[in-house]
Each structure stands twice: as structure tokens, then as C-alpha cells.
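Why DL-methionine transporter permease subunit? Reviewers of the renewal asked for a concrete example.
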Amino acid sequence: MLFDLLPPALAGLILESLKQTATMVVVAALLSTLIGLPLGILLVATEPGHILERPVFNRVIGTVVNLVRSTPFIILMVAIIPFTRLIVGTTVGTWAAVVPLTVAITPLFARLAEAAMREVDRGLIEAAESMGATPFQIITKVLVPEALPGIVAGQTVTLVSLIGYSAMAGTVGGGGLGDLGIRFGYQRFMPEVMLAVVIILVVIVQSVQVLGDWAARAVNHRIARRRKLA
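Here is what the prediction returned.
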């Protein structure tokens, strides 16, 4: 075991840091999905020629998404400090890191969800419209279900990016594995701690990628079977 090579006190610190990283990633992932998926739907549905055509609105939210995506995460964390303090009452710690993580990763997931929904056959949408389906029904019964494999794959990419962001957040007071690696591995010249942090992060990322790929394939197979039965 990796922890057997470290003193018990350090092993305990690593476990606590792993818990903090898991909290940051899981909470930020859930929030980014709840916000990013509707945002991605709006980006698709309000574009010219689509079911909720609103060119000006589409351009505005697209610009906002691009502005957030183009801002480096470290700069974004500093820039929204007042907002973070307003939401959680502090700018240091695991829960304080969740706010900038969510703000940073939501536009990425929104764009990935948008790209997945753009791949949906327009013939399916037109067929639903011809049968009198409302925009809400088209979104919930056609657009999102048909794009689900791509959305799941996008969520996997989002989670991997989020893990990297969480390690970065740790370097500026967010806690977690990144904070542990900097404080002990770098500042205290303990390469074994840095190595342990890197190995844990690699294992987490690889596990997320494998599970995400499996989930995307499973969803895709279910959709294919549904089409055959139809």
C-alpha cells in the first residue's frame, strides 16, 4: 500500500486532503451540471433557425460563456473573491473553493452539452414539430435523450478538468490534495508526499475516465435498442 510508505500522521493528512478534494469535485460537478445543462440547452435552442430562436439572447449568453472560459482559473478565483465571500462567508477552505470551481467549470460543460445536442439529427426535431410537440417536449423527449451519450462523455471531460482545477485551488487556500502537495511536497521538501499526491490524482482521473467511457457506451447502446424497437 502507498500509505504504508508514509508516517501515520502524513497518511492521515493525505486521507483528509483526499476527502476535501472529493467534496470539492462532487459538489462542483453537481452544481455545474444543474446550471450547465440548461445553459447548453439555451445555447442550442435559441440559435437562429432552432425551436426557440432568439439571436440576440443567444449572442449575449454565448459571449458571457466565452468570457468565463477564456479567463485563467487562478485569475478567476481572485476576481470573484467578493462573490465567494457573499455565498459562503469566507474565501479560504474547501467550501470557498467550490464557488470558483463551479463558476469556472460550468461554461465548459455547457459548451460540451451544446456540442452534443448539435449532433442530434434535425429530422427528428422537425418530425416532433410536425406532430405538434411543444419546445419543452422537444427538449425533454428528443434533444436531451438523443444527445445523452455525448452529454455523458462531456461530463467525463468536465470531471477530469475539475479534478485538475481542484488541485490548483489547493495552492491558494482551497485545501485538498493540491494544498498538501505544495505545503509538504514542495515547501517542506518531502518528495514522497508529492509523489503520493500525483499517484492518487492519476488514479482518480483514470478511474473517472474509464467509468465515464463505460457510461457513455451503455447509454448509447440503450438509445440504439430503443430506435430498433421503434
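The longest helix spans residues 135-174. This is the kind of structural detail the renewal will allow us to pursue systematically.
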